[in-house]
Amino acid sequence: MFYIHQITCISPQQTFSDIDLNILNDVADNKLKVIEPSYEGIPLNILRRMGKAVRIGVGSALPLIKQKPDGIIIGTANGGMEDCIKFLNQIIDYNEGMLAPGNFVQSTTNAVAAQIGLMSRNTGYNITHVHRALAFENAMLDAAMMLHENPSANYLLGGLDEISAYNYNIDYLSGAYKKEKISNKDLFTIDSPGSIAGEGSAMFLVNKFSKNAIAEIEALQTLHTDDIDVVKNQLQLFIEKNNASGKPDLLLSGENGDNRLTDYYTEIENEVAKNISVARFKQMSGEYPTASAYAVWLACMILKDQNIPAHAVKKIGETKKYERIFIYNNYKGTQHSFILVSK
Amino acid sequence: MGVISAIGNSVAENHVSLTQQKCGIGKLEQFPSKYAATLPFGEVKISNELLKEKLRAYDADVTRTTLLALHACKEAIDDAHLDPEILSLYDTALIGATTVGGMCLTDELYHDANKDEGGSEYLLSYDCASVNIYLQKYFSINGVINTINTACSSSANSIMYGARLIKQGLAKRAIVGGVDSLAKFTINGFNALHILSDEICTPFDQNRKGLNLGEGAAFLVLEKEEDCATKKIYAELTGYCNSNDAFHPSSLSDNGDGPYLAMKGALDIAKLSPSDISFINAHGTGTENNDLTESQAMIRLFDTPPAFASTKSNIGHTLGAAGAIEAVYSILGIANGEVYPNLHFKEPIEGKNLVPVLSYTKTAIQHVMSNSFGFGGNCSSLIFSKS
Fold it and tell me: Does the beta carbon of A43 lie under 8 angstroms from any beta carbon of chain B?
């Protein structure tokens, strides 16, 4: 599909500057919140007006837009949720009185892509995919299509979402998060429904040139179903279709500690990972709709460093050489994605 | 094709209203808002209860945005004779667009976002994706499913994405469109930006006072020419382009760079020159900024622009639905050889002197360009051609 040449990630872990994946930062109140950098490239007057989603999106994009990409392709389920509900609260609290538009403009889900375009004066293709947990996957598919249409181009591809007090509340009420307070170190040992909340922004500079690339996105498939058998059948077809250059040597699993999803992950593991290594990432990122962007970033790091942080290892397979990583992510048992990332 | 708007609940009704120069903008009746009495809106005059009954969509968590989308999507699917078997194939794609999604439930969202317990039935219905996730389930569609939000140009981009999926063999047919319903959220947002008119909007008029918000939905079924030899074909999508104005979060540059690049790019993809365009379905919101900038960009590209008009004067600005609804209107113009006039226009913009089409005209239309420009500088243009 395409090659990844540069990557950045702002997450709850040490992933942006001075990267160290062996350290696992703790969760607080079941929320894994991002470590924000100092955002040196963003003028203070602009930074002050940005909500967190826009800050982490623009902050992680800045190092990559120096390459002057031909377009900006972003996936985010909710964009600036904090600003959105702040504006909503004003509507209700002031009974539709005269309101300041700042939060409204920052709250639109396309604000991140727009702000990146604005700050880099980029008049190219600019789009925001918002299809919940397949927002980043659709952004990847879009990037693949754009590169098919314009083989010499470079695109900025990214996925991000934020935790706001409000979307945490809505998701908590719907049963998405654990009722008991837990440590992220115990995410996979506590047998209860729900996960822990997360947030982050991962950005990629992508093109069609294999030379000096960090990784290749080889294949991608998305599914809407709650039927495990459908997922298994589609997985078999996906593997068959993509086994020409060998089988994956690592499964990067989207397990999130929610015991209602264990069956899906077990079945997938049995299907693809009989003899290969299995690693997990949501103890690092927490659960959020575009966590698969974090997974792709981590896959790039594993391919680059040939090392899986100890806290991420679920099982070590026959080989410790990682050349093809299969990512399976499942959001609330309804949206699934298969992503094949290789060296 | 399927459409629901302030001037009709079907393609046929919308068509009759367009030819009769009907304006559907008026009083807000479906929900209470402080601005119901002072601002005009392009509201769909059917209650949620009636929509639910008509569509047999009784799920507790279904929102007005989803109901409007379902109404238009169903009409499009029936019109294209897509049976359940075809819908469920892995090469049938559904690409929708919305900016407000389930946030039309402003009060419910307020409570669920701020309350510790006892959530409403709408907890999973607030995001933009909720609309298409509902449609996906309702029709059991199994191909690529996506939702796009590029503000007011959203559904122009969903049409473009669907077309590109087909072109690259990632789908054999794509159901593409967009929806938005009126909401306190958008009413107050646009009001805070001081771009809502307290009178019925007058696109491209020197004394225009702003836009009127509207609601509605439209869906279109796209297929490759070779796959629909025996089917009814309305028109061909020949050009499309998405560009960014990269100027300001909520207004367009004086020179109209984004609009110019979008229109120019669409012509390039269609391999057409400016003189080939018979008619421009303008974005024409009726705001000071948009109409001035769009005029400037049209003059830059066309020198003397072809016939143009904005149907925002019929139905208001339907945000995430606008690109798709106006695609249907553009296609109706091509299929019937008609031009629908720009209503409420009196005096051209000083210095631009562009006069939109002012009366309903019967004339052969070969290529229509349809513009959608949004916040965040997100500009898109589509070109539909007589097939």
Answer: no
